[in-house]
């Protein structure tokens, strides 16, 4: 049975308390509610960004389609105007005038058809721009919400990190001067036993696993010297006797 000063064994309880506090703080840091909020917002933002990219591409396609429709109308209108001007001058032959009138009729029909196409594209573009505005607004709101959530997370992180630094400093003071072998044993057990390496023996109950020691184990512990480092037979943790 290893030996260590009684005072050092009792100091392990202070160290354990600080270690437990540190574990709780780290767990709190990793499970902040705002972290889940950020994850959800990031996922929604990715979906919205994809939808926004598709919507902007569609708007660009419709804009090009409208430009082409406008150009087509302009070309026909220009030719129609030119032919009408030639016809109005009266400086053309009867045969040419007849050909111009025939072409003017065809161009007028074509102009009406192209204007219908232009109006259709304009209406589709206008409707899509409204949808695009809705997506852009949703995207902007998510960006703002994510920024707020990240700011909240950083503020909570800072507060927790500050407390962790303070507890860590107190722990360094608490372990100073403790028997090296005892401290090494404590660290080994703590690592393998869920963060608890030492516990108080409360009557016949282990403060670590909360199980009652049997009579034989309890007699062995009571008969051991005060400097003997005893351990719980159930969980293996160091038992500090009061």
From TrEMBL:
Record carries keyword Protein biosynthesis: no
Annotated ranges, domain C4-type zinc ribbon: 206-239
Residue ranges of coiled coil: 52-79
InterPro entries, alphabetized: CT398_CC_hairpin, Oxidative_Scav/Glycosyltrans, Zf-RING_7
Keywords, in A-Z order: Coiled coil
Pfam families named in the record: CT398_CC, Zn_ribbon_9
Domain of life, source organism: Bacteria
Annotated CT398-like coiled coil hairpin domain residues: 15-194
Protein's name according to its UniProt entry: Uncharacterized protein
